Structure formats: C-alpha cells, structure tokens
Amino acid sequence: MSYTNKPKIVVIGGGTGLPVVLKELRNKNVDITAVVTVADDGGSSGIIRDYVNVVPPGDIRNVMSALSNLPSLDLDIFQYRFRSEDKFLAGHAIGNLVIAALSEMKGGIFPAIQELSEIMQVQGKVYPASNEPLVLHAEFTDNTQLAGEAEITAAHKTIKRIWVENNPWSDNKKPVAVPEAVKAIEEADQIIMGPGSLFTSILPNLMIPDISSAILRTTAEIIYICNIMTQKGETIGFTDSDHVKVLNQHLGRNFIDTVLVNTEQVSEEYMDFNRYDEVSKQVKHDFKGLRDQGCRVISDDFLLLRNGGAFHNGERVVEELMNLVGSPSKNKN
C-alpha cells in the first residue's frame, strides 16, 4: 500500500484504554480519528446525561485530553474532578461540565466537540459515535435482560449479546451514526479497537447499524488490542480468542484481521484488587482459536505495571501498530 498523504488511522472505543493509544499515536506522522462511545450512563457522565439530556461527556473528555497540545496545567484543570464532599459538584470533572455547556450553546454534541477541539488544540479528529445518547441493552445467558451500562456490569452475569437503542424521546427510530465517523471508517487505512471494556466500550459503537456496515465494507486492516486482564461483569474466564469470537458474532462475520496480545506475566501479588476491583485474572491465550477465526496474532510484552494495576504500554503498542501500517492483512487478500 502506498500513501500520497499521511496514513489514516481510526481508533474506536471508550473508557480509559483508548487514551493510552491516542497519546502515543499523536506523536506519529498519521491522520488520527477517534470514534467514541456514547452509551456511558455511570458516574459524572451519567448524571449530566440524565439532567441535561446530552451525550455522556466522560469518554470524549479523556480522548480530547489525550490528543490535546495544551500545556499540562490547562489539561489538569480540564480533567480536574471535584471531591466527594463538594456536594452539588461532587464527582464532576470540569471538562464534563464544559462539554455539556458547549453542547447547549452550539445545539448539539458534534459542533460542541469541533469547537472545543480548536480551543484545546486537538491533534486529530474526535467524533461521537452518535449525536444522541444511546441506551445499552444486554441479554444474559439466563435469558434475562437489562438496560443501562452500569446496571449491566453490576449484574455480574454472563452476557450473551448486547445492542443499543435511542432514548424513548428520540425522533429517530433506530440509532444513527455521525456521518463523519462512518466516512472516516470507510476511508481508513487502519482501524484499531481497544484496549477497553469489550461489551460496554467497544461493542456499543459497532452496534450502531451505520458503523457496523462501514466496518464490514472497509478495506482497512482491523486490529483488536486485547485486554490484559479479565473484567468483572463482562469477561470473566475469557481467553483472547473468546474476545474476538464475541466481536465476530455480533457483526455476523469474522472481521478482525489482527490481534495484539500481551504475553508478559502479571504478578497477582502486585495487583491492588481493592483499587482496581473491576479486574480479576489475566486473560489466557488461545492462539489456535484466534487463527481459526482468520486472525494474524501479534504477541509481545505490552505490559505496563503502574500504581498496583496492569495497563498497556502505549509506546510499545503504537510501535507495533506503526509496523503494521501498510502491511498486507490476512483477511483482505
């Protein structure tokens, strides 16, 4: 593959994993687009969503900070979260309030993000997956169903499938993607999913029909960065192959081309399970299962131990992603 311009890379997801990759990608000579989930209903984002009827801003805030060229003090202020004893403002991040305010001023989340991107000197493009806040739904293996990301995760049941719906007061009968996000996917050279919560950060984006269709049409290499640890309420007992199987099943086709998996061992003695109560055991490997689904497997030490938790080393991950830009992928040939 040859380029007349910078390689176009689209990163899809949400949560805390996405910024890890974006912080390092912004230092590379690439055209970055981040497509961010809008189904979060927990914490500060959930409260703002309920009272202001705006797309939950938390994931968008973190992505914009990761891509911003502002001085560190400015970003610290934008990311500052009020203490729990602050009553009315308890738990709210200043950036969330700014995004909510701009959404009202500009008549929607999309123009608000574009305006704020200029103010924050964002390197790349940030698009919400949809202009409307979406409601996440799940069906579990016991055939029960729940709505709401926080409720689904807290149920600690095995998820069979998830889907997204508009709020009841929406004018649209089904979720509609931001057209710019769809176009970015169609024109991408590389699409990255993860790291992040499988059912609540990555799949909600893919469950928007316009986005899933674009994913299945694109000629870009699609890369999944598998989580290092399993997650309570979502992926207990999952192998890396199980993660990919869930993605493929939801889109009805084996569409993941390449999977990045960490092979460095995480010491349970190091992990602070009181602080990171959403993690449990290290994801086990099933390389044969991945290859049976048509995946190229890139396995290496992508581990970063920090503050009692296991995270991806963004620098090493992005170094591998840059090696893969332009290389032929198995499923596209």
UniProtKB/TrEMBL annotation:
GO cellular component, one term: cytoplasm
Compartments it resides in: Cytoplasm
Keyword Ribonucleoprotein: no
GO MF term list: LPPG:FO 2-phospho-L-lactate transferase activity
Record-linked Gene3D superfamilies: CofD-like domains (3.40.50.10680)
UniProt keyword terms in alphabetical order: Cytoplasm
GO BP, sorted A to Z: regulation of cell shape
Record Pfam families: CofD (PF01933)
Major site of localization recorded for this protein: cytoplasm
Transmembrane segments annotated in the record for this chain: none
Function per UniProt: Required for morphogenesis under gluconeogenic growth conditions.
Family of this protein: Belongs to the gluconeogenesis factor family.
Protein name, as recorded: Putative gluconeogenesis factor
Species this protein is from: Pediococcus argentinicus
